[in-house]
Amino acid sequence: MSLVPLPRPPQDAPAPRARRLELVARPRRQQGPDSETLGLLLLREGVVAPDDMVQALALHAQVGGRLADILLSRGLISEARLGQTLARHWGLAHADLDAIAPDPRLIDRLGAVECLRAGLLPWRMAGGLTLIATPFPEDFERERPRLTALFGPVAMALTSAPRLEEALLALRGRHLDQRAISRVPDSESCRGWGQASHLAAVRAVAALLLAWAVLAPASLVWLLSFWAAFTLLLATAMRTAAIFAALHRRSPDPPLRDSDILPTVSVMVALYNEGDIAARLVRRLSRLDYPRERLDCLLVVEEDDQVTRRALRRAALPNWMRIVVVPDGSIRTKPRALNHALNLCRGSIIGIYDAEDAPEPDQIRKIAARFLRCGPEVACLQGVLDFYNPRTNWLSRCFTMEYATWFRVLLPGLARLGLPVPLGGTTLFFRRNVLEELGAWDAHNVTEDADLGMRLARHGYRTELVNTTTFEEANCRALPWIKQRSRWLKGYMMTYGVHMRRPALLLRQLGWWQFAGFQVLFLTSISQYVLTPVLWSFWLVPLGLPHPVAETLPPGLYAGLTGLFLFTEGLLIAITIAAMRLTPNRLSPLWSVMLHFYFPLGALASYKAAWELVRKPFWWDKTSHGHFDPSEDG
Questions:
Q1: Which residues contact 587 (CB under 8 A, 6 or more apart)?
Q2: pLDDT, tens digit, 9 for 90 and up, residues 138-189
Q3: Domain check: are 161 and 124 in the same one?
Q4: pLDDT score at 29
């Protein structure tokens, strides 16, 4: 797909219409036999019914693209039958890549990444010709001048897209892996973490704290108590401001209709060891009502993950879904897999889902409508996350209340305040050109979403929250919850460290307002979890037990500290009850009190995160899914 210049609208044309056209990816007109000729051939052979072909040709005239893709996405022809017809239509032979392996030297001339993007595989020399295998013969004439400049005289042979990707993976998997893990510039990536100098600094800080605790424990307790109270005050102030900002809600954009000009949306789902959930994922994504010829769904799996690959083969994938295999590499993280699969996306909008997600059916329409009507500075749209198992146990209830507050109040408030938005890991949609401009995801960061949100802000882009919900599975077992939260906190620690390498540069890029918001968001999130025992120690006072700090505070200061604790607890309960009214989950307001006992679990997660940050910073402690799915999806 390529973006072609569109006619400039007259000066009095409405701005939303102009922006709308900018997002539509239209292919250039192909040379050689046209789609109508292919359509007639398929009709003569009785492969496609006349009524279906008329609709497919009308749709092709409206949205462009390949007629073959439209026929496949609508299930009007099988890929094998289409391949046979294309071979006859173009007078081509099939490239037998098993009998004669592609020449790696020819691949390197074009580049493995470009081979994937363009669907071109330089195969072998035959006489004075370089044979190029492709699953898209209708694009070949457009590429011929470039290919001729690289290889001299060229001719094409036919192959399938999966076979092309498999051959590239076998021959240039290591190069593709290196490309996927190094897309983000060194200055904005955490991949340099773990060097000897970093570990020496960590040991020095640990030794200093240990010596301080032994030699002057009272002053250390004072310092930690002051920092815990100060960051609590900052967090409370930020939440209060976000609440007031979130009250001003924007009217939703009407979803797009089939008669509108719809952009192609590529949705990626990274899967790993998901043998039990693959079939359910296919069913859930099949409920999306976006036109199939404009929806490109990539199920991204690791090369050695035979469990998931077998499950997907059993799931009878529709033609608009395809499996993308990620080459083996030194690390295995979700962002690395997404970086690899981005090369194969066809859409101008890139979306991300998780394995257990159940999005609302009209979600893609809402996303496309908002992108087409907002300015180009809005590079990312974040949907709302909720849970389909909120009543499994007390942990799932607390998790549901936490998500309701975060996605329905706090994140919209941060966005409306003009502060950087830490993205969630799913129901994210990006303008593809911006995503590629920024180098996509940091393959080493275990919270690649929050990191990308900060990089978007640093480069002048904005994130908006969209009123569309994706339901997923609440992680409601204590140990898996701690593992998942530790990964998030480790990523927050990494992200803060990466972006604070050059504070002066960060300040220039963000400005004072966003820079202050970045500091408050990350420092309070990390500090409040790590210092939970310090804050809880003040419960000793009402129990009549001595406290080394409370006993030495002036009465007025102690009263102010007590007021801060009470106000924070009251605000948490109030905002939770209000947020729950915005969700379809009707939990009793009394459950909001349990959050006081829920968040201390995060302290254990924070210590695990700090330990892993030193010992195994890039370890991805994966969350398993499919334990508490609703019965109707079983």
A1: 390, 391, 397, 400, 401, 580
A2: 788 889 999 999 999 999 899 988 889 999 989 998 999 999 999 999 999 9
A3: yes
A4: 36
Query: Is residue 152 in some structural domain?
Result: yes
Does residue 130 sit in the same domain as residue 73? Answer: no
* 470 phi, psi to nearest 5 deg: -115, 130
Report H helices in 272-389.
278-286, 306-314, 334-342, 363-373
Residue 94 DSSP label: B
CATH number, position 47: 1.10.40
Cα(72)–Cα(318) distance, rounded to whole angstroms? Answer: 9
Same domain? For 130 and 63 the reply is no
Q: How many domains does the chain have?
A: 2
Query: Residue 305 and residue 324: Cα distance in Å, rounded?
Result: 12
Q: pLDDT tens for residues 509-550? A: 999 999 999 999 999 999 999 999 998 888 888 887 888 887
3-state SS, residue 188: helix
Q: Which amino acid is at 425?
A: G
Phi and psi at 549, nearest 5°, equal -95, -50
* Helix, strand or coil, per DSSP, at residue 377: coil
**The pTM is what?**
0.86
Please count the residues of the chain. Answer: 634
Q: Which two tokens stand for residue 622?
A: 């994966």
Cα gap 21→133, rounded to integer Å? 33
* One domain, residues 175 and 111: yes
**Cβ contact 113:178 at 8 Å:** no
Q: Closest Cα partner for 428 from 404, 411, 409, 405?
A: 411
pLDDT, the chain, mean? 85
Q: Do residues 110 and 167 both lie within one domain?
A: yes
In a domain, 244, yes or no: no
Residue 425 is given by DSSP the state S
What residues contact residue 36 under an 8 Å CB cut-off, 6+ apart?
A: 57
- 76 and 125 fall within a common domain: no
CA distances from 527 to 167, 172, 230, 402, 603 (A): 49, 44, 10, 18, 10
CA distances in angstroms from 406 to 241, 414, 518, 572, 575, listed in the order given: 14, 10, 16, 11, 10
Q: Tens digits of per-residue pLDDT, 344-387?
A: 998 999 999 998 899 999 999 999 999 998 989 999 999 999 99
User: Is residue 463 one of the residues assigned to a domain?
Assistant: no
Q: Are strands 154-158 and 129-134 parallel, antiparallel or unpaired?
A: parallel
Per-residue pLDDT, 444: 93
Establish if 75 belongs to a structural domain: yes
End-to-end CA distance of the chain: 38
**Residue 40 belongs to domain spanning:** 31-90
Alpha-carbon distance 404 to 312, whole Å? 32
Longest dimension (CA), the chain: 94
